[in-house]
Amino acid sequence: MTEERPLRADARRNREAILKAARHIFAKHGSQAQIDDVAKRAKVGVGTVYRHFPTKEALFEALARDKFERLAGLADTAMGIEDPWEGIVFFLKEAAALQAADRTLSEVFRDHGDFMVDTAQSCGLSELGDRLVQRAQDAGVLRDDIRGTDLGLISCSLAGVPPVWSWERMLDIALDGLRPADRLTDLAG
Amino acid sequence: MTEERPLRADARRNREAILKAARHIFAKHGSQAQIDDVAKRAKVGVGTVYRHFPTKEALFEALARDKFERLAGLADTAMGIEDPWEGIVFFLKEAAALQAADRTLSEVFRDHGDFMVDTAQSCGLSELGDRLVQRAQDAGVLRDDIRGTDLGLISCSLAGVPPVWSWERMLDIALDGLRPADRLTDLAG
DNA sequence: AACGATATGGAGTTGCGGTTCCGTTTGTCA
DNA sequence: TGACAAACGGAACCGCAACTCCATATCGTT
């Protein structure tokens, strides 16, 4: 059915240019970015953008998938960190930084819950989250009543913090809510 | 300058109807609600809506102000609760419930940081927050390094939790991050 | 080189939704 | 109850941005 002919060289090149441009524009303006701007930045006609992505929606979705893969990458490096607690901190911090720099991600979190859950699943992020949590619990540095999805929960909630305030501070509060009842962060200063 | 003639009776009536309708429509669709829908629901022509609110933006803002006053009201009742910790829990819970039921509020949180801070100030919400926090700290049931604005911080972050997950759970985590290091909530179950 | 198949650019189309305008209605006041 | 200002309704207007279309250009294959 869906014959997968290889793209012509110029087409492949343009596709990449479009994605690159779109990443930049959508990061700044979220889903209300304008296709014309993407085309202009990619040095390509609007028609070309539509040849590759039949809909603004489709382009947005492709970008979102990208981001989730990057998140999965982060989770993976997090698993590589020896200290399990630091692994979790690393992941949450990087994930939050990613969102803060990119409206695309936080918009997906807010407005496309189902897509988010599906994609997290299909790119292995969910499972990595579970393992990250499990490992920390085994080491006794994370409360036992936390689940893998709570990492997503926290990420989303950090995405809700507007620029006037700092998600870093909220993260500190949330992290203290995750620890077993021993040592807490000092938020003063 | 701005002569304040009293509104004619029908005008006053319509204004209320518009606000009421707008509250309903904006709660569901956020700032991308449509003026025509508001007019229809208020049983009024579009022109009338524009007579009372020169701009969609202006209507949105009026609604937002409303919400902040309601939040201030909540903070006030919270101060009336004997147990200072329960006061804080009450406030955060009610505030979150309000957002969950009303896209207007969470949109202001997300996209209009400055307006939010100003309005919180001008309707006394900021000060009430400070007092709520202070009182709890005096009673020793709240970490000393928390500030009044952290209530806003937490509210915003709860607004970021999409419907697929539950803000209640995130609130529990955050609350545990607020407590002095003694008794924590049991998130299991 | 030459010929299809594939891909491109960008002017034009379309639809949507905020805003305006004005002929009509309603309230108020004498 | 008559007259005037205030307010109304909703068709029409207008700008904006997603999307289409097709004459033209480019690629890859023989």
If you had to describe this structure to a student in words, what would you say it looks like?
The structure is a homodimer. Chain A folds into 2 domains: about 5-55, Arc Repressor Mutant, subunit A; about 55-185, Tetracycline Repressor, domain 2 (Orthogonal Bundle), CATH 1.10.357. Chain A contains 10 helices and no strands. Chain A has about 190 residues and is mainly α. The structure holds a DNA duplex (30 and 30 nucleotides).
Keyword list:
homodimer, 189 residues, mainly alpha, Arc Repressor Mutant, subunit A, Tetracycline Repressor, domain 2, 0% strand, disordered C terminus, DNA-binding
Topology (elements, then pairings):
The structure is a homodimer of 189-residue chains.
Chain A: H1 9-29, H2 35-42, H3 46-52, H4 56-80, H5 84-100, H6 103-111, H7 113-122, H8 125-138, H9 149-159, H10 167-178
Helix pairs in contact in A: 1-2, 4-5, 4-8, 5-8, 5-9, 5-10
The first copy, chain A, binds a DNA duplex (30 and 30 nucleotides) through residues 5, 7-11, 14, 34-36, 39, 44-48, 50-51, 54-56.
Looking at the structure, what is the overall shape of chain A?
elongated
Give the number of domains of chain A. Answer: 2
Structural class of chain A comes to mainly alpha
Number of helices of chain A: 10
State the total count of DSSP E strands of chain A: 0
CATH architecture of the largest domain in chain A: Orthogonal Bundle
Largest sheet of chain A: none
Radius of gyration of chain A: 19 Å
At the fold tier of CATH, the topology name of the largest domain in chain A is Tetracycline Repressor, domain 2
CATH homolog superfamily of the largest domain in chain A: Tetracycline Repressor, domain 2
String of helices and strands of chain A? HHHHHHHHHH
Please report the distance between the alpha carbons of the first and last residues of chain A: 62 Å
Kindly state the percentage of residues in helix of chain A. Answer: over 70%
Percent strand of chain A equals under 5%
In round numbers, the mean pLDDT of chain A is: 93
